[in-house]
Amino acid sequence: MGRKEDxxxxxxxxxxxxxxxxxxxxxxWTKIGTEFVTPTAYPQHFWxxxxxxxxxxxxxxxxxxxxxxxxxxxAEIEKMILKNQILGASILASLYKYDLYKKSLPR
Length: 107
Known about the structure:
Helix content is 36%, strand content 23%. It has 107 residues and is an alpha+beta fold. It has a single domain, classed as Nucleoside Triphosphate Pyrophosphohydrolase. The protein has a two-stranded antiparallel sheet. A hairpin with an 8-residue loop joins strand 1 and strand 2.
């Protein structure tokens, strides 16, 4: 997760963050929704995008940004949540929003 730069669109920020943090590029982007992490006096509003058809970019990863990229199935993610291996309201909200998005797709 990252921040939007001044005059940068939210989608452009998502693309830049994927490249910076995971050294990946995606051909297809879908906005899944928005969320408020903390609906308090200082709300943290964030946008959720689904990046698909990803490929590595020719860039060395910044060790301050990322250790490694891993793939997990939905079942593995659910187990990790139950074992408190995935924490954080923004991450959990994003995963839930993605699950709802998948269920809304025509079968």
